[in-house]
């Protein structure tokens, strides 16, 4: 049964507030305002039933998505905004929702934000049980979106930050091409390192696409709305840096056979022996190209690499890029 929609008192439109406070989107912060309430409502609907939940909104700007969140009556809403110019418009929403939604405004860079402290009152759930009543929702700046999701995937792998409480869900916007990459299945032309990183730890869904013309100013690309729900049983339980290292090497040579990419994981004197051994241990075809390897097969390759690291400790810190620079610098 759907929760009742909270009706806010009459407020100026987001467009009017932008004019009133003379707010301009800053290019250096990758700001684009979303003014269509039907679209912001649809973004929040994609997050599922958030009534009574603890919601963290990233980059609320003038408060378009914020209004749609408030209407769904979360128990607590924390908006994290780096640009203090938006404080007056957010305070207006805070005042309007007083007595209905416990709204907190944090003027901060989300990359420095401590989710565990902010959500300390939320009861922790067993990872294998139901997700906690936590939702992260945001119209992310293009300039930090990929970096941010990688940070959060690492936190998921370590069950830290917002994921110290369980499998907290995310509903986020990305450039359409990035959204497609995150979801891209095996053999898809968009499949890349980001695809596998996301799919190793999360169930990824590209919910819908927002045309660029819906934003002010209009970006050069369309925007994809993506949900990420951490898996009960991730494909890998290994150090995040190790997994990232393996995938980075494989996708550095996306169109080559995977053996060529994998060889660079090892010092030259061990390269031929361990390169072949890696694929034998993982039971993966070494002639497959990186985008032709399944997520499960990548998990096996990561575990095989871990076994080789245990047997050959000298390869753990090996980085062919550093060795290559040393060789070039010697000439």
From TrEMBL:
EC number: 2.1.1.-
Domain of life: Eukaryota
Gene Ontology biological process terms, A to Z: transcription initiation at mitochondrial promoter
Molecular function GO labels: mitochondrial transcription factor activity; RNA binding; rRNA (adenine-N6,N6-)-dimethyltransferase activity
Signal peptide range in chain numbering: none
Class of enzymatic activity (EC top level): transferase
Cellular component aspect of the GO annotation: mitochondrial matrix
Annotated S-adenosyl-L-methionine binding sites: 32, 34, 59, 81, 109, 139
Keywords: Methyltransferase, Mitochondrion, RNA-binding, rRNA processing, S-adenosyl-L-methionine, Transcription, Transcription regulation, Transferase, Transit peptide
UniProt entry tagged with the keyword Disulfide bond: no
Pfam families linked to this entry: RrnaAD (PF00398)
Keyword Transcription regulation on entry: yes
Main location: mitochondrion
Cellular compartment(s): Mitochondrion
Location of the Ribosomal RNA adenine methylase transferase N-terminal domain: 39-232
InterPro entries per the UniProt record, alphabetical: KsgA/Erm, rRNA_Ade_diMease-like_C, rRNA_Ade_methylase_Trfase_N, rRNA_adenine_dimethylase, SAM-dependent_MTases_sf
PANTHER family linked to this entry: DIMETHYLADENOSINE TRANSFERASE, DIMETHYLADENOSINE TRANSFERASE 1, MITOCHONDRIAL
Family (UniProt): Belongs to the class I-like SAM-binding methyltransferase superfamily. rRNA adenine N(6)-methyltransferase family.
Designated name of the protein: rRNA adenine N(6)-methyltransferase
Gene assigned in the entry: LOC108744626
